[in-house]
Design goal:
Layout (H helix, E strand, L loop, with lengths): L6 H7 L5 E6 L5 H10 L6 E5 L3 H7 L4 H10 L8 E6 L7 H11 L2 E7 L2 H11 L4 E6 L4 H7 L4 H4 L9 H17 L3 H5 L3 H23 L5 H13 L7 H8 L3 H13 L3 E4 L6 H6 L3 E4 L2 H7 L4 H14 L4 E5 L5 E6 L3 E6 L4 H13 L4 E6 L11 E2 L7
Parallel strand pairs: 1-4, 1-5, 2-3, 3-4, 10-11, 11-12
Antiparallel strand pairs: 6-7, 8-9, 9-10
């Protein structure tokens, strides 16, 4: 099993008394992470329960804590000794927070909990498990993790992180990066053998997200509207969100569209990027840009241009590096991204010196001296003052 970057923080938290809560979009590897932690426990008093199984849900839905205790003992967990209990897909059982609180306060149990939504975990767990948990958010693979899954060695790609284009690395990793942009970073999609399998996995992820996660976490019952909105957001990736316009297109109440968008963001399906400004009041009034949480989702939700696809990939990559915003003047001139309020970033599929000069002028106008011109394809002329998208990785 390949250890993901997040595993180091998870492993460091394993000996701590607090519950380790792992959340994220469906199929990003939460179960694998939980099993990884269980494999690192130094004793054998451990139990893993998948709450997608009816018998396990029945166990935790019992009204009496004593019956739950008996059930856990029957399954082999010794409650009289330090124990580790992993519960997978906790959002499926509404009673889990109260049961976990009781067991946590009564016995020496280390909990490992996974769930498909920060919306559920941050709201339902906040009161009942206050001070008793730490939430870890898991995302699809970034490109450096993708390369690890492709069995490249860290020494081959880590020295290139956030540096200008390197011709050797570009030649070596370009085909992998194109595959990454096209199909995204869900682990099982990356490991699939054929493109047809990858598309099938991605369609299943989208359908399960709408039909299971969203319906479970809300009172939204019209899945056709939800799916249409998902498609519309894919087509408009990289655009500023206008809830009124979306409402008009879909013939859905504007307030409901706003609720949908908030839920999509809370459940990791979309990423919204605010405008860059030093005026807080103006920042609040400006529309945010929207990007999907994984470029593979674009492949099954809408026909988008290669430029949109690449920009979405960069938005996701930059979000792993820090705080991301965008800048736009009233005249319409813009800078695609601002990283950590310090770096001006322009995204071009084929970068040119002219693009760099334009970026430099616009960045100077707002007092930013560091500029990254990010490209996807090497230009035909000898120009190397640009950052290849595949180098925008964390170490």
């Amino acid at each position: 099993m390949i250890e993901r970057r997040s595993y180091a923080a998870l492993l460091a938290h394993l000996p701590k008394r607090q519950a380790t809560v792992i959340t994220g979009l469906r199929r990003v590897g939460k179960t694998t992470a939980a099993r990884y932690l269980l494999s690192k426990v130094t004793h054998e008093n451990v139990l893993y329960l998948d709450l997608e199984k009816a018998e396990n849900r029945l166990l935790f839905n019992q009204p009496l804590y004593g019956d739950i205790e008996t059930g856990l003992r029957t399954l082999g967990l010794n409650l009289d000794q330090p124990a580790v209990l992993a519960l997978d897909e906790v959002q499926l059982v509404a009673a889990v927070p109260s049961v976990v609180k009781y067991l946590y306060d009564t016995y020496s149990i280390k909990f490992i909990l996974t769930g498909s939504s920060s919306y559920y975990l941050k709201n339902h767990f906040t009161e009942s498990l206050a001070g008793r948990k730490r939430i870890f958010e898991l995302y699809p693979l970034d490109f450096s993790e993708y390369l690890a899954f492709r069995e490249y060695k860290p020494a081959q790609y880590q020295p290139l992180a956030c540096k200008s284009v390197n011709t050797t690395a570009y030649a070596l990793f370009r085909s992998d990066y194109e595959q990454f942009i096209r199909f995204g970073g869900f682990p099982e999609v990356v490991q699939a053998e054929t493109n047809d399998d990858r598309i099938a996995y991605l369609k299943d992820i989208v359908n399960a997200y709408v039909e299971l996660d969203i319906k479970l976490l809300s009172d939204f019952s019209v899945s056709d509207d939800l799916y249409k909105l998902c498609q519309l957001l894919a087509v408009h990736t990289g655009s500023r969100l206008d809830a009124s316009k979306l409402s008009s297109i879909l013939a859905i109440n504007r307030h409901k569209v706003t609720d949908y968008l908030n839920l999509f963001e809370y459940t990791y399906f979309i990423q919204r990027i605010p405008a860059f400004t030093t005026n807080i009041d103006r920042e609040i009034s400006l529309q945010k840009k929207v990007y999907l949480a994984d470029t593979g989702l674009l492949a099954v939700l809408g026909q988008v241009s290669s430029g949109q696809q690449f920009e979405n990939a960069i938005a996701i990559q930059l979000a792993r590096l820090g705080q991301v915003s965008y800048y736009q003047r009233r005249s319409g001139q813009e800078i695609d991204f601002i990283l950590n309020q310090q770096v001006a970033i322009e995204v071009k599929e084929t970068p040119t010196p002219y693009d760099l000069n334009v970026l430099a002028d616009r960045a100077s106008s707002i007092g930013l001296s560091e500029r990254w011109l990010v490209g996807r394809k090497a230009p035909g002329n000898p120009f190397d003052d640009w950052y290849w998208g595949g180098n925008l990785i964390t170490t």
